[in-house]
Write the structure tokens for this entry.
Amino acid sequence: MRSFKVALVMENRSIEIHDSVLEDLHVLNSVAILDFSSVYIHQSAGRPGVDAGSGWVQKARLQIRDAIIEGSFSDFPCEILGGHITLGEAVLNNEIRIPLGYAGKTELRLESWNGAFVRITGGGVELELIGEPKYVEEFRPNPSN
């Protein structure tokens, strides 16, 4: 009897904050709910956002428990220029890892193209991807970087 080894390629995924569109931000029972009409997801067998892979778009909802909000956006939908998420002591610049469910000190900062920002601190965060992802492109890093 022959045995076969099957190599499974683990796909790593993350949202690139700078290519996201925030549709709505509201608070319900001390939970900040951020609805994104579009997030750009980089998927790679290596490091998302760095190594070769593919780009996808999808709707998403991010919920931050025990939320305190500083700043605001004047118009929705709002195209996001950049930001970061802090989970405990770990800071991820322009990136939200998938999957994401975290209990503990959380901070999310989003900046829009017009200079406005929102900073949300809280006690935990959950990410929900909504619907099916749509393929956008293949991503190949620039070898000179």
The beta strands are 12-28, 31-44, 53-64, 68-71, 78-87, 90-93, 95-98, 101-112, 117-139. Residues 12-139 form one domain.
